[in-house]
Amino acid sequence: MEQKYGYPQSIGAIDGTHIPVTPPADGLADFICCKGYPSIVLQAVVDGNYMFRDVYANTPGSAHDASVYRRSPLYDGLHRRMPVRDKSIDGIDVPLHITADPAYPFSRAMMKGYTDRNLTTAQEDFNVYLSSTRLCVEIAFGKLKKRWRILNKRLNIDYREAPAVITTCCMLHNMLEKLRIPEPAEELENAFEKPEPVVATFVEDGDAARLRDIIANHLFNSQPIRRPFHLH
Fold first, then answer.
1. Is the model more confident about 194 or about 223?
2. CA dihedral (32, 164, 138, 75) positive or negative
3. What global pTM score does this model have?
4. C-alpha closest to that of 53 among 93, 21, 96
5. Which residues does 127 contact at the CB level (< 8 Å), separation at least 6?
6. Is the pLDDT of residue 215 over 80?
7. Alpha-carbon distance 217 to 229, whole Å?
8. Is 200 a residue whose pLDDT tops 70?
9. Domain boundaries in the chain?
10. Residues 159, 23: contact at Cβ < 8 Å?
């Protein structure tokens, strides 16, 4: 991830995408997503090689990213599953972590960008670097849906079987990526579709803000400055 995006200590990015499904007759409203169709949310952590490292596909489409994460096993298990390989940055040991958008919690194991209105140049720079790492999960979703076209149209199976089908497609995707077999070249509409980010209330890790400042200052002082896209 650092070689590809210039951002240190990230081992992956987390995000969600909608997979169309056939909902139960008595629970349609729970499955209607923000795009207006019934779906299941696929939450995934993807590494810099576009490999799925954690997937969870068991939440109806009306749920926001924050709700999906809170229901997933990753919510209580992320810190325990994170490899221990700290890196000294400006004299401070910074742990490995995954990167996320504002919908997710902020902790030593999950880093997200600054959200204040009046950001310093270093903080804006950090946000651009962090956002670039999240391209890997969007690209992986696009590859997944190009390879397995059934994920782009409504799955005509019992909705309770859909999580197993979605997870299997992710596993097969990893096998093809490892073998360096490219996905089909055709562009698919909504290949990078994802739920709208929602700012959620979590109990936040007080140490995470200090680590974020350390990474931001390190990037500002040692890497080329990257401006937010809207400033160009």
1. 223
2. positive
3. 0.85
4. 96
5. 113, 114, 119, 228
6. yes
7. 20
8. no
9. 2-223
10. yes
Cα–Cα dist 80/77, whole Å: 5
* Contact between residue 182 and residue 91 where contact means Cβ atoms under 8 Å apart: no
State the helix-helix crossing angle for 135-147 and 121-133, rounded to 10 degrees.
20
Nearest to 220 by CA among 6, 48, 12: 6
Phi, psi (deg, nearest 5) at residue 28: -60, -45
**Dmax (CA) of the chain:** 58
> What is residue 195's three-state secondary structure?
coil
Strand partners, 10: 97
Helix axes 162-178, 135-147, angle to 10 degrees: 100
DSSP label at residue 117 = S
Burial of residue 75 (number of CB atoms within 10 Å: 0-12, 13-18, 19+): middle
**Read out DSSP for 21-69?**
B---TT-HHHHB-TTSSBEEEEEEEE-TTS-EEEEEEEEETTS-HHHHH
**DSSP, res 6:** S
Q: Two tokens at 52?
A: 């799925």
Rg over alpha carbons for the chain, rounded to the nearest Å, is 18
